[in-house]
Automatic annotation (TrEMBL), chain A:
Residues 13-202 form the Electron transfer flavoprotein alpha/beta-subunit N-terminal domain. Belongs to the ETF alpha-subunit/FixB family. This is Electron transfer flavoprotein subunit alpha. The keyword Transport applies. It comes from the Archaea. PROSITE patterns: ETF_ALPHA (PS00696). One of its GO terms (molecular function) is electron transfer activity. Gene3D superfamilies: HUPs (3.40.50.620), TPP-binding domain (3.40.50.1220). One of its GO terms (biological process) is fatty acid beta-oxidation using acyl-CoA dehydrogenase. Pfam families: ETF, ETF_alpha. The keyword Zinc does not apply.
UniProtKB/TrEMBL annotation, chain B:
PANTHER family: ELECTRON TRANSFER FLAVOPROTEIN BETA-SUBUNIT, PROTEIN FIXA. SMART domains: ETF (SM00893). Belongs to the ETF beta-subunit/FixA family. GO terms for molecular function: electron transfer activity. Residues 26-218 form the Electron transfer flavoprotein alpha/beta-subunit N-terminal domain. PROSITE patterns: ETF_BETA. This is Electron transfer flavoprotein subunit beta. InterPro entries: ET-Flavoprotein_bsu_CS (IPR000049), ETF_a/b_N (IPR014730), ETF_b (IPR012255), ETF_beta_N (IPR033948), Rossmann-like_a/b/a_fold (IPR014729). Pfam families: ETF. It comes from Halanaeroarchaeum sulfurireducens.
Length: 341, 260
């Protein structure tokens, strides 16, 4: 087990490119954007790492999105994702090439295998960060993360161990822009893992098209107060041309898909308008919607904390308020169309 | 094949989230006066561990690393049905980040000859979710995180899990020994019976382990933690208008500009 290391021996900012069935998780492009800034500040290269059955195309896209160098490990053992092979391959590359910083999306996948890299390499691993920077004179990674369910922000540093690893929450950064003229080197690396590293086998995998609520300009979210009837939420979202979202409580009840959950353990959304109906406003929920420009709350309990965290609110039954709102929206939009004519 | 399973459940003591307040004068986090409770997601871990024991047979041992008074969360676990409890307590553990914390839990799991180690999804205080994969990595065991359901296959020395993945779920079979992290809220934790509660309060005694008992005194604590908390500040509340209306028309007028 390596003890303290000489930070001078470590350079480059690595970004893990998460893909499933050839489809790249958007957080990976967000990390290339943020990683580019860190690499430029420290005068280091931005290196992307792809593990898949055939990663050439994804590697080319990573170059277009800002990577100077892409490491590609191609092997059927990487499909579908399992912690064992991903962790072991990533670890072997880290030990061979000594990156300074390694960023991994804070998805279930990223948070599943990151520890299998950090533990054997004795690296510092910061969880679920929402802000990244480097310290001016030292070049140390400053990873900021919410704790106590979002009541406080902690800055985590890793002074004597390398690499400085972080999992980073999805949706908090903008994805890197594409630039077809950008050049970078793509390197297919030796695959150093096999089935023996897996300790597990996939029996079945059921994945439907994943909705993405993180880009929506308007979000209408329902909570436990809907008592399982999301139709008023859906109608209002439909009238507004927005996306339906939910609290964790509603997702756990099976009333909404997990991909629609907003909050600490769900998605971070940054819409112009966020309407929360039948949601109490627990700190873990607020964390995912704090960046909304305007927040509207509908709740039957005047003491619900959501009102303290909303711009506009109404104390009332969502089954009465939302249909009325939907009607107003339809009317207003209808008028808009006629006056434009 | 293993006849009965040695099941370890990891439970953490945390400040009661409802009690953690922000000092209005200093703007700092006030958690010293917060009651210490069992990490909410760990109730789901205990429930899953007890269900495994019901299906396969064996024992459930609750394990916690923390100060001496963390024995309370072991008592809670025993009241709910755990067979025994191990308290890893030592000044040497102070300031441990997830690297040494998972090492300590990995060592005790090895010591107890665990077949399955069950954890919660994450803690409610520092909520890294890194401890369960860390335990698995230290021992080079299999891991199953974000688990919604478990299906033991003792005849194959395997544990099958339904895992929550982006956009769906997967069924995955892992070799024993395996570390599991249950999705918070995924099962309905039982309520402790009175009999068991009295037993836990009066007769139960935790087994104590120091860092040197586990042979890791040189590898734990602040000095051996690769990360350190460089600073904490209270998150500034986002400024909001906080305007409450009596009728839908006024409410709609307030945000009409945003939508048309
Ligand atoms: C580790 C951890 C992570 C978590 N992560 C998340 C997360 O990512 N996202 C998240 O949302 N939560 C998360 N939570 C859970 C969070 O603490 C709350 O339990 C949850 O947000 C509550 O959901 P809710 O507001 O829908 O339900 P409740 O708190 O039950 O609130 C329901 C609200 O509906 C109102 N209501 C009832 N009927 C009506 C009606 N007819 N009309 C109008 N209003 C009505 C009630 O007054 C009440 O305020 C997490 C918790 C933990 C411990
Ligand atoms: C503000 C703050 C931020 C921090 N950020 C980081 C960070 O980014 N990286 C880092 O490495 N460390 C960090 N730490 C240190 C970390 O919180 C401790 O190591 C902690 O003891 C374990 O992490 P956790 O609470 O996040 O556990 P999690 O991994 O969230 O817990 C998951 C499960 O593991 C089990 N478990 C966890 N701890 C114990 C325990 N002591 N005893 C028994 N079972 C347990 C429980 O089943 C629990 O449900 C931070 C600490 C603070 C105060």
């Amino acid at each position: 087990m390596p003890a303290d290391v000489d930070p001078e021996d470590y350079e480059d900012v690595w970004v893990f490119i998460e893909q499933h069935d050839g489809e790249v998780a958007k957080v990976s492009w967000e990390l290339l954007n943020e990683g580019r800034k860190l690499a430029d500040k420290n005068g280091e290269r931005l290196v992307a790492l792809v593990m898949s059955e055939d990663g050439q195309e994804i590697a080319e896209e990573a170059v277009v999105r800002g990577a100077d160098h892409v490491l590609v490990a191609d092997d059927p053992v990487f499909e579908p994702y399992r912690a064992g092979p991903y962790g072991a391959q990533f670890r072997d590359l880290v030990e061979e090439r000594n990156p300074d910083i390694a960023l991994i999306g804070g998805t279930h996948t990223g948070r599943d295998f990151a520890g299998r890299v950090a533990v054997p390499t004795y690296a510092g691993l910061t969880a679920d960060c929402t802000e990244l920077d480097v310290e001016e004179d030292t070049g140390l990674l400053l990873a900021r993360r919410p704790t106590f369910g979002g009541d406080a922000m902690a800055t985590i540093k890793c002074t004597t161990h390398r690499p400085q690893m972080s999992t980073v929450r999805a949706g908090v950064f903008d994805p890197a822009d594409r630039d077809e003229d950008r050049e970078g080197e793509i390197e297919h690396v030796e695959v150093t893992v096999d089935e023996d590293d897996a300790h597990s086998r996939i029996i079945d995998r059921v994945v439907s098209d994943v909705v993405d609520i993180t880009d929506a300009e308007i979000v209408v979210a329902g909570g436990f107060g809907t008592e399982g009837d999301f139709s008023p939420i859906e109608d209002l979202a439909d009238a507004l041309g927005g996306e339906v979202a939910a609290s964790r409580e509603a997702v756990e009840e099976g009333w909404a898909e997990p991909a629609r959950q907003v909050g600490q353990t769900g998605k971070t959304v940054r819409p112009e308008l966020y309407i929360a109906a039948g949601i109490s406003g627990a700190i873990q929920h607020l964390e995912g919607m704090d960046d909304a420009k305007t927040v509207v709350a509908v709740n039957s309990d005047e003491n619900a904390p959501i009102f303290e965290n909303a711009d506009y609110g109404i104390v009332g039954d969502l089954f009465e308020v939302l249909p009325e709102l939907t009607e107003r929206v339809r009317e207003a939009k209808g008028e808009e169309v006629t006056s434009d004519d | 094949m293993t006849q009965e399973w040695n099941i370890v459940v990891c439970v953490k003591q945390v400040p009661d989230a409802d009690d953690v307040s922000i000092d209005p004068e200093t703007g700092t986090l006030n958690r010293s006066d917060a009651a210490a409770v069992l990490n909410q997601p760990d109730y789901n871990a205990i429930e899953a561990a007890l269900q495994l024991r019901e299906e396969v047979g064996g024992t459930v041992s609750a394990v916690t690393m923390g100060p001496p008074f963390a024995v309370d969360v072991l008592e809670t676990a025993v009241a709910l049905g755990a067979d025994d409890g191990m308290l890893l307590t030592d000044r040497a553990f102070g300031g441990s980040d997830t690297w040494p914390t998972s090492l300590a839990l990995a060592k005790i799991s090895e010591e107890l000859d665990a077949d399955v180690v069950v954890c919660g999804e994450e803690s409610t205080d520092s909520s890294t979710g890194q401890v369960p994969p860390g335990v698995a990595a230290h021992n080079d065991w299999a891991q199953l995180t974000y688990v919604e359901e478990l299906e033991p296959k003792p005849e194959d020395d395997e544990l099958v899990a339904k895992r929550d993945i982006e956009g769906g779920h997967e069924m995955i079979a892992a070799e024993l020994p395996v570390v599991v992290a249950m999705v918070f809220g995924t099962n309905s934790p039982r309520v402790a019976g009175l009999h068991r509660k009295i037993f836990a309060e009066t007769d139960f005694e935790a087994e104590e382990y120091s860092a040197s008992d586990l042979g890791i005194e040189e590898k734990v604590g602040l000095a051996n933690s690769p990360t350190s908390v460089g600073g904490m500040d209270t998150a500034d509340p986002v400024p909001r208008e906080k305007e409450v209306f009596d009728d839908v028309d006024s409410l709609f007028e307030a945000f009409e500009e945003e939508v048309v």
